[in-house]
Amino acid sequence: VATRMRNDNVSIRIKGWLNQSMNDLAASYEFPALHAMANFNSAVGVQSYLLEDNLYWLKAMWVDGRTPPMVWPTTEADLASCDPYFRSQRGTVYYYYLNDRTLGLWRIPASVETFTYTYQKRPAKMVNDDDRSSLPPEWDQLVLLKTMIRAYEYDRNDLVNSAKADFSFFLKDRSKTVY
Known about the structure:
The structure is a single chain. This protein is an alpha+beta fold. The protein contains 4 helices and 8 strands. The protein has a 3-stranded antiparallel beta sheet, with no helix packed on it. A 3-stranded antiparallel beta sheet has the order 2-6-5, with no helix packed on it. The chain has a two-stranded parallel ribbon with strand order 4-7.
């Protein structure tokens, strides 16, 4: 990427652009290498739980074998407007909401329940020059093209349109891949 730039001072930014590009792709596509599962037991009277550090997005959740629907999109203010007592009522958890990595339960658990969830992990951050992408190797070309688009836009380089066309072509081809 750096060799195609007019601005020589971008080498520091390249790793950041690579990480952003991997995150963009991981936000839009499921990768088996990034699939994870975790669980926790609720505590009586506790309504909010912090999920895994590497959680990028939640796929599914079960509470003692049943699937509660996610209240989406909403905020605590929205919940408070439709149910002012949602922070104090105890009972069976029927809904949940997610605020970044904090899982909030709509009703305070009246008993211990086991929560199991699957999620996509955030791709490992590339820090060193010899680090590899945590996306499958066949996606490396797309990560590179996405990074080049960011670099060209930063540099106001005319090659940005060509990089965008290449990215669209490779994305269409790669999207046919089934894992």
